[in-house]
């Protein structure tokens, strides 16, 4: 199975409490400006959309900010620290995205829906709004300030890359970063935002644990993955001590045919068609891998704030990625309009259980759940669909079968809201 389609894919040292009140007032005012609602908006993507947006940002003079993430539940988010920010709804937001295909150079072609000619633009005019509290919009200047001398890494599969590109695009509106590293296949990258000495990385490690993958860049597999469930992928572990913040996530790659190893011994396989190896459920493999990752983080002895991202749902309808499935909806679902698929539900259950187990007796590092599965499920309209390639219907009558991508997210798109969630969790501490 191939899910990559064809893409190579916040101790608040509190100063004066007045300062916090100022910031809080700014954020609340900012929050109100996002509460506009128009039933049938006239939607035009203009670059001034984001100019007007940035002019609304509070001036983030250095002295008025707490020293660094994470916060300690005081000040800025007073009253909302118990708020479940992952339960809510998508609301109309005519402010528009922070960036467009013209203002961000870091959008992967397969997710550059604007450039690729996606005709409708409604999907960029929504923002995530929790039921229990206000979720202030991400503030790139404030974020960069908090991240002085810090390093943050997104570790995982192509969804992690999708997410880092969203953050990159927003941050690059206030400062163009310098790329300081990429691997041979441009799958892992590192940038530095020099004015704040903030390092941002994305690390390609689709299984998180050690894996031998026999697949080319187009996703053609020439053999089952050899997956070690009790050994971590050195590609991120070797650099782990350099990171202050990590966003880690797994998911769909675990559905692939694989031979599972523990203690360097084959314990079974999934869909490997080898008579002498017994079938082991990929759920077992996923649980074991997530546990290996979380146990490692739990035992780490450097200052670390880690997010565990939950699995991401796809929205293929009337088929799968390779059997003509598509996703042509243009509005979000409302709560209750769609149920989570069995696989996503089981994978998320494993993530939640392993997260709770890991949190038990965890004293050094901070671990937070980044539970975006359900809010993502409500956005069938946010995927590239056929617009994963440049003008897919040019030169044909529109009936030609083109491969759809109903897993990754258009940039700009729904995944931009994930940054609001990160900011909130970092400020809460
Ligand atoms: C959080 O900030 C408050 C207000 O300054 C302070 O009294 C408290 O000790 C801090 N808590 C931690 C855990 O740092
Ligand atoms: C951005 O997308 C618009 C269509 O939405 C297109 O006209 C324009 O050429 C694109 N620009 C770039 C640099 O991709
Ligand atoms: C960042 O690091 C530099 C060099 O180590 C140091 O001089 C500076 O004070 C640090 N800044 C902050 C905000 O920690
Ligand atoms: C940048 O931050 C790193 C820690 O992340 C520190 O080691 C380095 O000295 C800093 N560099 C500058 C120029 O401040
Ligand atoms: C792993 O294998 C070695 C020998 O190959 C054995 O001594 C050890 O007990 C095994 N450990 C586990 C956890 O099975
Ligand atoms: C399965 O059989 C193949 C040859 O048919 C052999 O090379 C391999 O070592 C066997 N694997 C196990 C786990 O017994
Ligand atoms: C989506 O595509 C299907 C099949 O081509 C079509 O029947 C349906 O009307 C389309 N829906 C939208 C919202 O375009």
Automatic annotation (TrEMBL):
Protein's cellular compartments: Membrane
Membrane topology: Single-pass membrane protein
Sequence intervals crossing the membrane: 20-38
Record domain Trichome birefringence-like C-terminal: where: 135-424
Pfam families attached to this UniProt entry: PC-Esterase, PMR5N
Signal sequence, renumbered to the chain: none
Keyword Signal appears in the UniProt entry: no
UniProt key word Metal-binding: no
Region (Disordered): 49-71
One CC-aspect GO term: membrane
Keywords: Membrane, Signal-anchor, Transmembrane, Transmembrane helix
Xref: InterPro entries: TBL, TBL_C, TBL_N
Predominant place of localization: membrane
Domain Trichome birefringence-like N-terminal: 82-134
GO molecular function: O-acetyltransferase activity
Family classification: Belongs to the PC-esterase family. TBL subfamily.
Protein name: TRICHOME BIREFRINGENCE-LIKE 25
Originating organism: Artemisia annua (Sweet wormwood)
Highest classification ranks of the organism: Eukaryota, Viridiplantae, Streptophyta, Embryophyta, Tracheophyta
